Amino acid sequence: MxxxxxxxxxxxxxxxxxxxxxxxxTAAMFASGADALSQQGAGMEMLRRNLTRxxxxxxxxxxxxxxxxxxYARYWHEVFRLPQLAGExxxxxxxxxxxxxxxxxxxxxxxxxxxxxxLPHSGNWDMAGMWLxxxxxxxxxxxxxxxxxxxxxxxxxxREQLGFEVLPLTGAATPPFARLKEVLADGGIVCLMGERDxxxxxxxxxxxxxxxxMPAGPAKLAMETDxxxxxxxxxxxxxxxxxxxxxxxxxxxxxxxxxxxxxxxxADEFAANIARHPQDWHALQPIWPADAQWRNAAHPRxxxxxxxxxxxxx
Length: 314
What we know:
- The chain is α/β, with parallel strands linked by helices.
- The protein is about 50% helix and about 15% strand.
- The protein has one domain.
- Strand 3, helix 8 and strand 4 form a beta-alpha-beta unit.
- The longest helix has 24 residues.
């Protein structure tokens, strides 16, 4: 029998318990935990290093780090509650209000060529995905095969409940790229997280003025299928504005040319969107090579937080 570690047990317990407790009480608990977490730990140092590229070192304040950690905690609080909320009509109507660029989705699907959406780990991409699946009948995505297997299976089950078709990045009989091309050939939707190069074999880009790599999957799929490529973004609007509680943006079509140029256009769109909502970018993992080297030297046994899909489907 596979051994379940403490962290995995915590994720599994979250899905079992959080949705059964009062939402206001659990939200307050997650926010309090975020405030405590924001003052310590390697993850917070990585978050600060990443945010430095977005807003400059002098603007990575204690308040920004706290707000970013609260945003990350809110994501997990909502993830643990989403299976109980999936398909709820009142929630769907509220999500509708926060969507920008829906016409770009409809226009792409009307052409029958399929649509590739790529987005960074910001806001609540699972909430955005649930909205997308509700209105458009589902989509295909790729997930990193995290360890232990019980945790990977739990994330797949969670996202399948929301209407996602989840393909493992590794370990399947066939690579996911072929299935993604089938979905697009049928005029469907593919969604790929795009700013973390999990394989380390992505395409070189400039991201916030510094060199790194990003997954080649979105650009390569667009080049090989003639499907429309667009950038999406998810964030939490300022509650003081008394508007929608979730924001979800879909861009106009991204020009597809060479692999390198297309990936750079995607990176530029990511950067512009993240800069507008830096506190909602859940960047607790290395994005740039210099930070990966720092993390590996300072914390060689640190395990990546699970749950994010990959754009490295190629």
